[in-house]
Design goal:
The chain is an alpha/beta fold and about 210 residues long. The protein is built from nine helices and five strands. The chain has a five-stranded parallel sheet, with helices on both faces. About 10% of the residues have low confidence.
Length: about 210
Amino acid sequence: MSKTTISAILAVVVLTLLIYINENKNDLSENTLKSNPLILAFGDSLTYGFGASPAFSYPALLGKKSGLHVINAGINGEESSEGLERLPELLKQKPDLVILCHGGNDILRQRSQVELKNNLLSMIKLIKESGAIVLFVGVPDFNLVGFKTLPLYSDIAKESGVIYEDEILTYIETRQTLKSDYVHPNEKGYEMMADTFMKIIHNHTIRE
């Protein structure tokens, strides 16, 4: 192998490495929060806090524990198609982070998973276009014994490159002591959600 060929191969390797490093830096910067972010908690009854008093919804607890301004934009019984229509008006408040936990009612009512995926991807697109970062929460398949996270949530997270959390709801749903009924967390369950999200927010916030 000639020196020219070796030099060319090395150049390609170095260029590939630089591209990889730059792409990873960009990925990190896209999901980095400024200090004291405004947070929009968007979803259905799991966000609203059904099964607990308003002071013990996860958005209320997250705000109390973190000292941050957290808007509770959860609506009981809402499906993803309705959420997609509602979201743009809320994004006018210019949140820095949107915690997107949606689709539970679509799953319970066995709506089309294709439509659910498209609706969630459209929500993420709207949130990103508004300038906010997305914390996407995986929702369990409530029609499945064992409450495993519905696989399409992982697919969406990979496609969209958002911050993704897919363990806390599955953990809660498999423990009756953390639930107020078959689906909804109780106060202790919502507190665990708040603690989980607070840790993620802390890990993605710039320290000044």
